[in-house]
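Quick check before the chapter quiz. The format below is the same one you will see on the exam, so make sure you can read both the input and the output lines.
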Amino acid sequence: MNIALRQAMRIQGVLGVAVVDYVSRMTLGALGSPDGLDLVRAANGETDVVRAKLSAMTLGGYRPEQLEDILVTLDTEYHLIRPLNRRTHEGLFLYLVMERPLTDVEMVRKQLQQVERLL
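Here is the expected output.
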């Protein structure tokens, strides 16, 4: 897990990353310290976002494994939530906080595929 977290931190624009279990609401690992943000606390809070989105998708007739990510756009940051439910780690998600001016979201998505393989 530490190797995966360190690799995610090498992605341009990433300020912090966490691996979270949205079933138990536990942060399994975190790295980075975005200014003014308690990364672990924020990651735990994002479990509600993941649960709500998966529930809404089910109500809409979508399969949970169709969800690739959830992007929250703030004035200076992106928060990317990437559920690992399409893989063997169902119940887990990656949570990234990224500096908006430095981040190419599509590139981050591609680089996260390598990070996911490490998990």
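If your answer matched, good. The helical segments are 2-9, 39-59, 105-118.
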